[in-house]
Amino acid sequence: MGANDLPAQGLELNVSRWGNSLAVRLPVALARQLGVGEGDVLQVQAGDDGSLQLRARRSRPKLSKQELIQRMREHLATMPRTESVIEEVRASARY
Fold it and tell me: Could you state, in order of their start, the residue ranges of all structural domains in the chain?
């Protein structure tokens, strides 16, 4: 079993203080399995028996490379063209 593999019997996670709250860190293997990353939202539901049910809900849609390029082009098209400042930057550069 590698460092990024999840054990078959489950995980034991430590609860730590984070400011006035308590926090649990997710190992990278679990985060990958859930398909979550920084900025994503997790929904937790507590069971009567003390169990927790954890669900991943993306806060932003996962885009393919082509979708991302298309959105970037659309955004770029909304930006006004301005005069290039590269000559000014070159003229004031110190070599």
Answer: 15-57
The class level of CATH for 15-57 reads mainly beta
Distance CA 26, CA 53 (A): 14
| pLDDT tens, residue by residue, 45-83 | 999 998 888 888 766 677 899 999 999 999 999 999 888
Q: What is the DSSP string of 64-92?
A: PHHHHHHHHHHHHHHSPP----HHHHHHT
Name the residue type at position 64.
Answer: S
User: What pTM, to 2 d.p., does this model score?
Assistant: 0.47
Residues in the chain: 95
Task: Give residue 33's identity as a one-letter amino acid code.
Answer: Q
Collect all residues with Cβ–Cβ distance below 8 Å to 37 and sequence separation of at least 6. 31
